[in-house]
Amino acid sequence: MLSSKAPASQITTSDTKLFAIRLSIVKANSMDIKHIIFITNSLGSAKKTVDLSIYSKQAYSLAVCSILKLFFSCGLNHKIKFWSCLSNAE
Prior knowledge:
This protein has one domain (14-84). It is 44% helix and 13% strand. It has 3 helices and 2 strands. Strands 1-2 form a two-stranded parallel ribbon. Helix 1 packs parallel to helix 3 (58-73). The protein starts with 12 loop residues before the first helix and ends in a 6-residue tail after the last strand. The relative contact order is 0.20.
């Protein structure tokens, strides 16, 4: 049986948000989905997913941009929207 587990340390909330966005785009790209809407309480994290400047989580951004290239190349009607929504804690 194959396992996709890997050791990790000091995972932050922003790491989980970046990873969730990445997984969502991968899943949408594997299906026949043309519109993706992300509802998030952190537009900053959402913007980081497409930030190609040099920073500590650049690998996430490169992976997301690579997937987005495939998603948008499937048709001109493919769209992604980010909606800001405050969390209960805010």
